[in-house]
Amino acid sequence: QEQLVESGGDLVQPGGSLRLSCAASGFITLDYYAIGWFRQAPGKEREGVSCISNSGGTTNYTDSVKGRFTISRDNAKNTVYLQMNALKPEDTAVYYCAAHGPRFIASCTVVPEPYRYWGQGTQVTVAS
Question: How far apart are CA 122 and CA 48, in angstroms?
Answer without folding.
Answer: 15
